[in-house]
Design goal:
mainly alpha; 703 residues; 7 strands; 30 helices; two-stranded antiparallel sheet; five-stranded parallel beta sheet
Length: 703
């Protein structure tokens, strides 16, 4: 396998899990089917190929279910076997005599319908020798055998004149004596009350049948032979590492079929005391609903999913139910995480030192979504390095029309969304790529849903009435299954550029309940960008949807959530006066500073239809305080006159919550204004000075 272009970020714990499971113990042990889950653009393919690079000094094979014509399980097994049989230095090659014999017998051209067992044996041996001779001749004429072995992406291999199902047989035969294949293979197929030849005749008969039960039986026999060949090889040649197969996009057609069969064969082998096979499977999927596993309510697709930090072989073993009533325990779903700011910084350093200063902005925009962070880095490079732009241009980065970000070849997970088309703005390119698995109706409905803080609110408030029932019924299921719904990010100083996160969550009503699901912040941002381009007062416009949501929250029983969400949508509608009046009343009425801060941050998390535009290049940029005051005076002059400090604070926090209003540096420019307003509030009656001063410190520079 070729060396990947760069070390992928954010998969350190995935590598730890992989190496832990790959290390072979003194005796054979059960192995999980590790399934790396990730929303589109999370780097699944890149990470999988990096694991292949790490495993390249031991038997390994790679197969992508999304890049090939759907194949039956035994055909997939044959391609994996060819990859696993690649000759490695100072190691005995893995042979597959049982699988090779079974594939040969299953050929439609060979008809084993004679009642004379001697004639059947002679026919089989003749076919084996003929395959060997024709392959040796082909090798002498073309010299391609070793080149073929080097190709790990076997599903795209094309060899003129050769039956793809028989590649393993024909390219393995020059290294595998016919007598060995005959003796070893025939003995294994004899594992039945009948004669060995009878079993092979039955296999040949089943292979010519189109009945679904017969097709499944052929797949079961040949995949069983594949695993038995591996187990036998490792029993005779002990190794320090398990062999590895890497299966990309198992949520594509036929992906699950192969793995479901593998799991069933493992169950049958265990029940018959055959022992455990040495095959470690690592698969990827973008849709959690396509992956079986133990049930877990409130998780995506109600599937128990581990984070990379939680994942380990011991954790998987401990999770196996006793007794196990289903086979789902074989699967071990692990969700890839978004990148941290330091990891985005590393990506920036790999791109160009000139874009490192923009890392805080890029991380805040993308929330570390890997594909999006790279796309933003590419756009930053184009703006700063190629065009000589500065802070004002970077504030419009989502409107930039970049080329597609770099991606590994043949990567269905990380390839760019628009190809060479540079006429599409970055936010539009992101929407097309991230949501290309959804229908047109679902994508349109999702834009409307982005107005709600919690996804369920959009459904319950009835703002999707213009869409057909199928779209409404499937939207949440498909968004949840593709992992775009997450617990909400705590609203506090951290999301405004200050220090500290999660310290106000104790003020949430019923904190023991799991938080409601929300759209991933980056996806929601690009969806809101699309909504802002609609006619505001149209059926699906900004004003129409936010007004409907505000009114619905006001009609519902006035819990804390409904009260705050109604004000949240009021602020999204630029009703700054109402928000300031409420917070002024609560400033005196609430018993503690934390409760008031919780409401302050929850309300000012409201989205802005349009970010505050920077001044044209060449004009003097107003100070951060001037920007806050100008917006407050434009939206709420009465509130500014009556509650100057509070109005300035609310406006500053609202601006700071939207990353589109930020400049690209490590010290958010509104921090000093926010800290100053908290200081001024301490002079007001009924304030808790200590709590407000502590909050102001969260925005003050630290060494």
């Amino acid at each position: 396998m070729a060396v990947p272009r760069e070390h992928p970020q954010g998969i350190k714990d995935v590598i730890r899990l992989f190496q832990e499971c790959r290390t072979r113990q003194e005796s054979a042990r059960e192995l999980p089917v590790i399934t790396l889950l990730g929303r589109r653009g999370s780097g699944k393919t890149t990470g999988l190929k990096w694991l292949g690079y790490l495993a390249s000094n031991r038997p390994n094979a790679f197969y992508d279910f999304a890049s090939a014509v759907p194949k039956r399980p035994h055909e997939v097994a044959a391609r994996l076997a060819l990859g696993l049989s690649y000759r490695l230095p100072r190691q005995p090659p893995v042979h597959f005599p049982r699988l090779a014999l079974g594939l040969l017998v299953a050929r439609a051209e060979i008809t084993l319908d004679s009642a004379d067992s001697r004639r059947v044996r002679a026919e089989l041996k003749r076919a084996l020798r003929q395959a060997k001779e024709s392959t040796e001749a082909y090798e002498r004429a073309n010299g391609v055998v070793e080149g073929v072995s080097l190709l790990q992406d076997l599903n795209v291999l094309q060899l003129p004149g050769l039956n793809l199902v028989l590649k393993l047989v024909q390219f393995g035969l020059p290294r595998l004596p016919v007598t060995m294949m005959w003796r070893t293979g025939l003995t294994w197929y004899a594992d039945s009350p009948n004669r060995p030849v009878d079993a092979l005749m039955k296999l040949n008969e089943l292979a010519r049948s189109e009945a679904s039960a017969d097709v499944e039986e052929v797949d079961r026999l040949l995949c069983g032979a594949f695993l038995e060949d591996l187990r036998d090889h490792y029993a005779r040649h002990p190794r320090d590492r398990e062999c590895v197969v890497l299966l990309d996009n198992i949520d594509a057609t036929q992906g699950r079929k192969f793995l479901d069969l593998l799991v069933r064969i493992r169950e049958a082998n265990t029940s018959s005391s055959r022992g455990h096979d040495p095959l470690l499977v690592v698969a990827t999927a973008a849709n959690a609903r396509s992956v079986p596993g133990p049930y877990a309510p409130d998780f995506p697709a109600e599937l128990r999913i581990r984070t990379p930090e939680e994942a380990s072989y011991a954790d998987w073993k401990q999770s196996i139910p006793q007794p196990a009533s289903t086979t789902k325990w074989h699967w071990y779903p692990v969700q890839l995480r978004d990148l941290t700011e330091p990891e985005v910084t590393t990506l920036a350093e790999q791109a160009a030192s000139a874009v490192v200063h923009a890392t805080p902005l890029i991380h805040r925009l993308s929330y570390g979504h890997p594909w999006s962070a790279r796309a933003l880095l590419d756009a930053t490079y184009a703006i700063v390095v190629e065009r000589g732009g500065g802070a004002a241009e970077l504030r419009r980065i989502l409107e930039h029309s970049p080329p597609a970000p770099h991606a590994p070849e043949d990567s269905t997970d990380t390839a760019g969304p628009t190809g060479p088309d540079e006429s599409v703005a970055l936010d539009e390119a992101a929407r097309r790529y991230l949501l290309r698995d959804l229908s047109e109706g679902q994508r349109s409905a999702l834009v409307v849903c982005s107005t709600a803080r919690a996804f369920e609110s959009a459904v319950d408030a009835g703002i999707l009435e213009e869409y057909d029932q199928l779209t409404k019924d499937t939207l949440r299921r498909d968004i949840d299954g593709r992992l775009w719904l997450i617990p909400p990010v705590p609203e506090d100083a951290n999301t405004r550029g200050g220090q500290g996160s999660g310290y106000l969550e104790h003020c949430r009503e019923r904190p023991e309940n799991r938080p409601e699901a929300v759209l991933h912040p980056w996806l929601r941002l690009v969806l809101l960008q699309a909504l802002a381009r609609h006619e505001p007062d149209g059926p699906s416009g900004w004003t129409t949807t936010h007004t409907a949501l505000r009114d619905w929250h006001q009609r519902e029983p006035q819990t804390q959530q409904h009260r705050l969400d109604a004000l949240y949508h009021s602020l999204a509608l630029n009703d700054l006066n109402t928000v300031v009046a409420h917070l002024a009343r609560q400033f005196r009425a609430l018993p503690g500073t934390d409760q008031w801060l919780y409401e302050l941050y929850a309300i000012t998390a409201a989205p802005m239809r349009l970010p505050e535009p920077p001044h044209p290049r060449g004009e003097r940029e107003p100070t951060p305080s001037d920007r806050v005051r100008d917006l407050a005076r434009r939206l709420a002059p009465a509130a500014l006159d009556e509650h100057w400090s509070l109005t300035m604070l609310v406006t500053a926090l609202w601006l700071a919550a939207d990353p589109r209003n930020r400049v690209a540096n490590s010290t958010p420019e509104l921090n000093s204004t926010i800290a100053a307003m908290f200081h001024r509030l301490t002079a007001l009656p009924h304030s808790s000075a200590a709590g407000l001063l502590r909050e102001a410190e969260r925005y003050e520079p630290r060494p």
